[in-house]
Here is the input.
Amino acid sequence: MSGAKAVAPVVAGPVAPAVALAVRPEAEDYAAWFRALADGTRVKIVSLLARHGRPMKVGEIVAAVHVGQSTVSQHLKILAAVRFVLAERRGTARYYRINDACVNLFPTAADLVGGLAAPVPARSDDDQLLLGAFREPARITIRPMRASDADRVLAVYQAGLDAGDASFETEAPSWETFDAARLPGHRHVAAAAYTGEVLGWVAATAVSGRHAYAGVVEHSVYVAPTARRRGVGAALLQALIDSTEAAGIWTIQSGIFPENLASIRLHQRKGFRVVGTRERIGRWRGRWRDVLLVERRSACIGGT
Here is the structure.
């Protein structure tokens, strides 16, 4: 990680120490989440919806988990109460889908209960951790980054840098510098479906001019504070994976601060692995910091 290349962040916020959770108001909310999964059938339902990635009717769920319809309906009611699943009506039928945000928030709750340090977003009027309910997934469109996105892209970039767990950099570059360094075919933005506002971006740079490394790129992914934990980062990473594989690129890599647990988990869910730790690799505001090197090797390219 060097120059203006950023560590790939998703949630950039202060890392909370493992304080006495029992005295925190979150304890009751976390307990409700764990209670919702304290049944094997409900775990199967959550897993089923997560794996299918699409809304499913009750009848489909009944057939898959081999439990009666009334029992499945009761389990869905419990899961919906804590928003692990979301219900939507299509005509006379009711469909259920996984709440993608729960995949991000639940591990954080588990870490806190287990006494581990976990990232907790800074509280503000427009970006609070919703303790009693997981956030609704963002309704977004993934599209190529355009020059007209410059101001918003750099604003999202700067917000990540300001939080402190995104990169060794402290100031976003000019658009000219940003544009010159990123590969044109592998930069995407997530735009709000109704307003068009840019909620996040992902971009890649070449790691070397040598022919042997022509299929290796380094990426950065940034999500606006108000759009975090809503599936935006996952959608952006998938867009990058799709565009790079279509172009014959076989490895995507990046560096992530160890404290950025949400980003590490997101990358692992998208097929990245932690290669190792680069200890005290750089100084950030006078402090030496480690960086985890992560990479994703395409299974479609160069398999033989």
